[in-house]
Amino acid sequence: MNSAPLNPLLVPSTLPYGLPDYASIRAEHYLPAFQAAFAEQLAEVAAITRVRSMPTFENTMLPLERSGALLERVAHAFYTVSAADATPEIQAIDEELAPLMSAHGDAIQLDGALFWRVSTLHDQREQLGLDPESQYLVERTFRVMSLAGAGLDDEAKARLTELNTRLSTLSTTFESNLLADTNDLAVHFDSAEELDGLAPGELSAAARAAEERGSGGFLVTLPLFTGHPYLASLRRRESRRRLMDASRSRASRGNANDNGAVLREIVTLRAERAALLGFESHAAAVAADETAGTPERVTELLRRLAGPAARNARAEQEVRQAIIDETEPEPYALEAHDWAYATERVRQARYNLDSAALRPWFEAERVLQDGVFFAASALFGISFAERDDLTAYHPDARVFEVSEADGSPVGLFVLDLYTRDAKRGGAWMNHLVSQSELRGGLPVVVNNLNVARPGAGEPTLLTLDEVNTLFHEFGHALHGLFARVTYPSFSGTNVFRDFVEFPSQVNEMWILWPEVLESYARHIDSGEPLDPAIVERLRATETFDQGHATSEYLAAAWLDQAWHGIAPDAAVGDTVAFEAQALAEIGLDNPAVPTRYSSAYFAHVFSSGYSAGYYSYIWSEVLDADTVEWFGEHGGLTRENGDRFRSRLLGVGGSRDPLDAYRDFRGRDAEIAPLLARRGLDG
Length: 683
Fold this sequence. Notes:
By secondary structure, the chain is mainly alpha-helical. Helix content is about 55%, strand content about 5%. A hairpin with a 5-residue loop joins strand 4 and strand 5 (about 410-420).
C-alpha cells in the first residue's frame, strides 16, 4: 500500500473560498501537479472530440469550459508564488515549466478536431437560440483559436509549436535575468550623508536592506521603472547619478544577465510567428484581438499625443534648468538623474508643496483602511475583515474577507505590500481563485506592490505615487472581485488587454476626492488632516510635470510598437541603436527624459502579457478620463453611481464586448477631450 502523502495541489482546498493550502504545499509538489493537470485536461478535450454526433453547445462548449479546472487551480497557485516569492528552487521550476505550458496550450488551441467543432458552432451561432453570453463565448473561442493558428496545416502548426515553446523559454529567461541583475545592481552607500534628503523611514529601509544582505551601510534597491522615487529627494547629485546609472544599466552590461540577445531573438521569433498566422507583424497580430483593431490606430493615437507631450517636456526642462541656474552654488546642465529633484524644487517654488513632507499623512495602514477600503465601501457597500486565521503564500501577504452590505460573501482580497529580493519589480494584480457559475466558487484576488519596508517598529509612510499605485491595483482587484460570469473564459479581468487598465485607472480618481482624502490623509502623530490649502495646491498640480510623465510613458509605448512592428526577415542589430532610432522617429529622444522602461528591462512586453500592448494604459485612459467626468457630473462617490459602474462594467467581466459595455454605462462612446485636458495636452 502506497503511504506517500497526497499532493495537496491535486485535491480541492478545504480552506475558505478555495484559498490554496500553502502551509501544506512544497516546491516539489508543483511539477507533478502540473503533469497530472496537463493529462487530465487533454483527456477532457479528447472526450469532446471523440463524440460522433454533430457539435452542439452542450456537447462541445460546455465540456470545453469545464475542462482544465485542475490546471487552473495549480497554475494560479504556482504563478502567484513565482512572481512574488521566486526562490531559486521556484525559479528553476518556472524555467522547466515554461515550455511545458506552451506545448500544452498548443495541444488544445491547435487541435484540428476541436477547432472543427467550434467552427461548426460558430457558423450556426445565430440559429442556436443561445443567450448573449453563450453566443459571445462561441464567437470568442472561435476567434482565439483562429488567431492561435488552429486553421493552419500540420507543417505550419508544427513550426508554430516550436516557436511558442522557444518564446516561452526566452520570456522566462528574460525575467530571471532581470530579477538577478536588479538585485545585483542595488546601490550601496556607506554613509547617511550620501543619502541626505531621505526621510527617516527611507533611511531605515535602506539600512534594513543592507543588513538583510549581510553588510553595513545602506542599500537602495531598484524599482522596475527607470526613475527611482528617491531621485526627487536626494540632495547629492552623485548619489542621484549612481541610482539612475544602476537603473538604466540593468540586464544590459554584457554579463550573464544581459538581455540584449534574448530580446532580439524574442522579437524575431514573434515576427515569424505573426507571418505564419497571416499578419504583417506581431503588433498587427496582437491588435487584431484588441479593441484597437490595428497597429495603425495605436500609432495614430501615440503620434497625436507625442508632439504636444514633447513640447511640454521641453518647456518644463527650461523651467527646471532655470531653477538650477538660480539656486545651485555651482550650476550644472540638467540631466535625467536631476529631473525629479529639480521638479520638486519647482513644485515648492510654484505651489509651496514638498512631496516628501507629505509622507507623514500617508501612513500605509490608514491609506488602506480609511482610503482604499473606505472609497470602495462608500461606492459599493462592501466591507472588509482581516482573516488572521488564513495563511497565504508568504508571511507578508495579508488576507481580507470581502462582504456585501447584507453580509453575503464577495470573495477574498490578498495584499502583499513590501519589496523583497525574491519578488519581481513593479505592482500587479492576479487571481488565486477565479469565479464562474459553471465551475462554482467565488474569487480570491491578490495585489502586489514593492514598498520599501522600514525598520522594526517604524511606520510605513507612502509617497503620493505609492498611494496612487495602491488605489490603482485595487481597481484591478475590484474588477476581479465583482465580475459574475457563467463561463471561466470570461472570469474576472479576462478582458481585452487594452481595456483591462480602465477600471484600475478609474479607481485612482478617489485619491483626492474630498471625503476620501479627509478620511485617510491624517498625520501619523497628531491625526490632523491635510491643510485645505495644501489640498488645493495638490489639485492645482494635477497637470504639473505631465509633459515629462506623458513623454516617458509614450516613449516606452512607442518602443514596444517599434520592436513588434518589424518584419520576419528584418535584421535586428544593436539594441541601443534601435532604441535611439525609434525614439527619434517620434520626437521623444530628449536625453533628459528617458523612456520609462528601456528594452533590456521592459518586462511588461518581453516577459509579461503586454507585448505590442503597452499602449493599453493611454488607450484605456481615454475611457478612464471620460468616466471620471461622468462621476463628477453625477454626484461622485455615491452608491447609485457605484452600483451602475459595478453592474454595467466591472460585473460583466469579459462576458461582452467591452466597448458595448462602456456605451451601456456612459450612454455614448468615450471622448478624448477629458484625457487631453487631464494631461495638459489640449493646447
